[in-house]
Amino acid sequence: MGPQVHVLSKNGAFLFRFNDSEFGSKWCGFWKKETKYFDYFAFKINGEYLNSGNLKSFDFYNSQLTRHTFSLKDVNVTEDVVCLDDALIITIKASSNFKIETEIGVNIRDRSENYIKGKRYLLEQENKKVIVSSNQKKSYIIFDAGNFFKNEYYGIHSPGQYSIQKGFSKYFDDGAIENKYVPGTIAADIPAAGEFNLILSTRDLDQEGIYKIIKNRISSVKQYSEMLNTVLNYYGDTNFVDKGFLKDTLDAIYSYSNFIDKEIYAGFPYFNEFWARDALLILPSFLSLNNPAFVRDILKKIALFSRDLGMPNVLGGNLRPLDAPALFLITLHEYFMWTNDKEILLGLSDFIRKLVHTGLSYLENNLIHDRGNVSWMDSLDREYSIEINALWQKAFKDSIEMLDFLGDDTSELVSYVNAMHKKFISYKRDGYFSDQLNKDINSGNQIIPTFLKIIESEDAKIILKNVEEKLLSEFGVLSVAKDDLSYNFNGYQNGAIWPLLTSMLAGAAYYYGDDDLGKKCIKILKEKNLSAQCSSRINEIYQPDGVPEGCPSQAWSIGLIPQILDKCFLGIEMDVPHKKIRVKVPKKEVKAERIFLLDGQEIKLNFLDGVVSSNKALNKSKDGFVISF
Question: pTM, whole model, 2 decimals?
Answer without folding.
Answer: 0.96
